[in-house]
Amino acid sequence: MRAWDRTRLGANYVPRRGWYDRLWGEFDAAEVREDFSALADLGCDHVRVQLIWPWFHPEPRVVSAAHLGRLERLLDEADRAGQGVWLCLFTGWLSGFAFEPAFVPREAFFEPSSRRHQADYMIKVARATAGHPALEGFDLGNEMNVVWSAPTETGDEWLRWAVGVLGDAAPGLPVVCGIDHQPLFGSATFSPRGVAEATGVGIVHAYAYWSGAQRRYPPEHPLVRRLGAYLARLFRSHAGDPRLPVWLQEFGQSGSCWPAEDIPALLDEGVRAGVAEGVCWFTWWASHDVPPDRGFDPFELDLGLLDLQNRPKPTGLRFRELASGLAGRPVRRPGDCPPAPAAHPEAVWEWLERQADEAPILLD
Known about the structure:
Blueprint: E1 8-12, H1 19-25, H2 29-41, E2 46-50, H3 53-56, H4 65-81, E3 84-88, E4 93-94, E5 97-98, H5 112-129, E6 135-142, H6 144-147, H7 152-169, E7 175-178, H8 182-185, H9 192-199, E8 202-206, H10 208-211, H11 213-216, H12 222-225, H13 227-239, E9 246-251, H14 263-276, E10 281-284, H15 314-326, H16 345-358
Parallel strand pairs: 1-2, 1-10, 2-3, 3-6, 6-7, 8-9, 9-10
Antiparallel strand pairs: 4-5
Helix pairs in contact: 2-4, 5-7, 7-9, 9-13, 13-14, 14-15
């Protein structure tokens, strides 16, 4: 595990052939090797990988040995390519689709009756992977709050419990919680303070499209072009900790709703603004494009740094430049943070606007 005090750039892994169903159902080590090698050529040093909970945990007392074996082979390929790996466990929500095991009803996810199943899954995955040199840590899930809802007191208590289970099963490995933007704008299952206290890391998913920023503001507005950096400030303010490490874990933009020729510049400005605000790590969504015949929302199809032939796109070439110039740079975290806004969307947007007007984030 590399420290949070150095800038790192990586990608959320989206397999270029067959999406995640081919990855876990028909694992092809050569394809994964090619994908990870192409990412390494861009300067990517870590990938975030989705396990798809019901595929790995198909029955109450069964965690698939075949899937764990494929996961070990993926970690081997990552190690060969110099990629650190973060495993998302309760996925859950992914690219517009919800994946849930039949034996944990959606409404019972946070109930005590579900914990024996959740613990069994976490422990078996952790024990199967914890000693691998490519594994850097666990993400409890991908935007879990989109699928499973609870009052924040319930969600935060579950989070402390789950972090404890993984801490016992894989001592020394960090655990994060990959929330989307909604807990920063209101009450949405997990609170930023609860995430910070349980994991020691703030997580930001910053999409100008999904957050609504690009509908509220003109294209050149800083809350569109530098949204991730301002959400990092917001997270630290909610957590009450200006020194909190923050990982910009997802950010990206699609030519379906934005001029494609401007997306490399958005990547560049988003990363440089994050560096100026003391964000530690930057993980673009996504590593690869998605084949157009998959039935995805058009937004999901062209988010890759690499195309379906593993060739760098213009965004990938800009990523390579950023990685060459910024990777390994010491992180400079802010010395203080402003008081947090009320947990209501309009109050948060007004707070962000004041930050952009009165304390703008300037590029280095």
